[in-house]
User: Fold these one by one.
Assistant:
Number 1:
Amino acid sequence: NAGVMQNPRHLVRRRGQEARLRCSPMKGHSHVYWYRQLPEEGLKFMVYLQKENIIDESGMPKERFSAEFPKEGPSILRIQQVVRGDSAAYFCASSQGQGKETQYFGPGTRLLVL
Amino acid sequence: GDSVTQMEGPVTLSEEAFLTINCTYTATGYPSLFWYVQYPGEGLQLLLKATKADDKGSNKGFEATYRKETTSFHLEKGSVQVSDSAVYFCALSDRSGGFKTIFGAGTRLFVKA
């Protein structure tokens, strides 16, 4: 049973470009969470999605960031017009259901903005 | 809102020493508590969890007990190994927080041979 998969593992973008990060949850999991980890810091919640719905986006910056989890395919975190401050590791987690369900994390995408 | 506070690192120990990493939490409901471990360049791995008061989570020689009276979930291991060197994150998940996981800042552990 494959775990949570994220790609790419490393992404380099120049300022002003778009970054698109993908996350495939574990088989049977319909809940996806995105977190951001700045260097030497803990993880900060960004957004919680179920299939075709955004449940909680309270941690998402108001501009340039968006997320989706379509009926078919992976969840996508999209960052438009990237700036140097967007450089971080972005982790996706999935869980089977709502409640006190354990979240399982992917290996992360490390974004570097030049 | 919910929050997690854990001891600052880095923590440096010799092999076979006893490890304690303190973690306390604030939550309005009855959260589940977790310890995650992150090895260099990797994602987070669930180390152990506890879902209600007085539960003890354990895995790979690590253990932590959910203490509601002190709102704590301290991580302990009796004898650390070099391979335990990593960053350890205490975390909680709570219905009132919308089920998102709230993480502490992490504690980096170095174990010397």
Note: The interface with chain B takes residues 6, 33, 35, 41-45, 48, 55-56, 58-59, 91, 93, 95, 98-108 of chain A (CB under 8 Å).
Number 2:
Amino acid sequence: AQSVTQLGSHVSVSEGALVLLRCNYSSSVPPYLFWYVQYPNQGLQLLLKYTSAATLVKGINGFEAEFKKSETSFHLTKPSAHMSDAAEYFCAVSVNTGTASKLTFGTGTRLQVTL
Amino acid sequence: GAVVSQHPSWVICKSGTSVKIECRSLDFQATTMFWYRQFPKQSLMLMATSNEGSKATYEQGVEKDKFLINHASLTLSTLTVTSAHPEDSSFYICSAREHRLPRRTDTQYFGPGTRLTVL
């Protein structure tokens, strides 16, 4: 069974600092991985996805993530945090059930950006 | 593109009443839609997978008679919470999958969510 683990339920960075949100996966088959962002009282917005093409994936809002098979990781980074990046971030893995693919989400990481 | 809407965005109802939540894919056809439930400060829990024209597939522990799902068209799925009780209060989020192959690369696009409060 596939699963993801997000290390750190809460991360705080200063504006302009590097953002690093950690995600490790467990999968018996090559995984497809996603990062979503959720702002308060809103649905989820796709930031980026890895689908076995390039291991370094660039997403929206300056975010990127690198798939590292040897470390079973898919950490999300952004060189310089902005106040508007404050939100909840979810890592997810696609689970193929045969007739449909389902997403299994991590527990989320709340990013706080301070002045 | 790939916009998913939900209606209503919030609803307050009395215990014992039923509430219907609509999920629409606005600019694409979604053969599959998903319904999630999210408790405060927690992750999303998949409730059911809805395929157009067929019965929904419910996750273990989700009462199918309690949470009725209908996916009558390629752009609309509805979730009806029947005889709602305070413990059903939650944030309900739908997603729609843009149909592509292979399926595991499909991207799910999420609606803005519906906050249900049962008094």
Note: The radius of gyration of chain A is 14 Å.
Number 3:
Amino acid sequence: DAKTTQPNSMESNEEEPVHLPCNHSTISGTDYIHWYRQLPSQGPEYVIHGLTSNVNNRMASLAIAEDRKSSTLILHRATLRDAAVYYCILDRDDKIIFGKGTRLHILP
Amino acid sequence: DAGITQSPRHKVTETGTPVTLRCHQTENHRYMYWYRQDPGHGLRLIHYSYGVKDTDKGEVSDGYSVSRSKTEDFLLTLESATSSQTSVYFCAISQGGLSGANVLTFGAGSRLTVL
């Protein structure tokens, strides 16, 4: 199974950028990196994904290390609504495994 | 929830009784997944399906069975529920690895309590 490592929790101030790290040292060449987040009392929702190049969308940016063994999800300007658990996963095959994710706390 | 519905949303049952949770999709997606979520454990994959009648085990499949007789429905059955199966169950769907990216869409969850 494709494994990722994330910090258990992080804190950030409102209206500041947030960088959420993820290590995936066993990544294979065709593995996509995905990020999901789960707001309180809701199901997880897709945030962003990438393979090699950095990616941007309306929710966030994904920065992928050159060796692809780590990545960083960037929330450019955190709001209180961004408080959630963020999951980094590797899309290796059909069997999609989640870890425990990072619980992000936003301080007003 | 983008064409994915879970039922029931809440259920309380007794130990030893059978329970079936249903996941229904209107997206015609090939892949369907069942996860459970417990405090301190994140999301854990129970079973998944990659087509009608095609299923496979996940990380925590013991005590669970699944069936997929048509594209739109994926059933999760607890043959004899135990208190350790008290959890929130999430279904997810995906088109599959088109363009190499398997993006999941999740349902709202089904909260099961086994007394």
Note: The beta strands of chain A are 9-13, 18-23, 32-38, 45-50, 55-56, 61-64, 70-75, 84-91, 102-107.
Number 4:
Amino acid sequence: DTGVSQDPRHKITKRGQNVTFRCDPISEHNRLYWYRQTLGQGPEFLTYFQNEAQLEKSRLLSDRFSAERPKGSFSTLEIQRTEQGDSAMYLCASSLVAHTIYFGEGSWLTVV
Amino acid sequence: DQQVKQNSPSLSVQEGRISILNCDYTNSMFDYFLWYKKYPAEGPTFLISISSIKDKNEDGRFTVFLNKSAKHLSLHIVPSQPGDSAVYFCAASEPQGGSEKLVFGKGTKLTVNP
């Protein structure tokens, strides 16, 4: 499978714990994106990397959220001190050209 | 303020008939539009896109129409098949503004009945 890979697919955590999601983009895609989707809503943009540089961040990305792409390949999204409102599907996407992006299957986060 | 609106939460059609999904936008700076399909518990899958310099783009059973003056686009699926049953998201971007962000609507759930 050469699509965008996300891990873990499901995560249940207690409020206040930290969680980390990993994304492996399609090989050779230099652009990588994180989105969040809650029930009944469309995906909402969180952040964008071109290679290892984080070029764009949404105001949705509070101080508790941090994303990295250290070598321009895989990326991690960490949420510190999780809150119940963080419960959502976290989607990673990648692309070679701007604006047509290909999503992974998502990582479900449930904060209890 | 929602910049991309899909006003129909759901649509039901018979197999073999046409499905028409609609999308409106408010930001006149949007000039690239996409449709994604999403099955439950999966990520969205890219379907088709259109640039604002065109008013129509076709790919197999899927056609997207863009009416810039009305700030409206639609996705036509002909003929509809049961496997098309999914949630369809309209998305827009503003390439000239330098942002790589896609803005999505809330989606329309399409059910194609055999």
Note: Chain B has a mean pLDDT of 94.
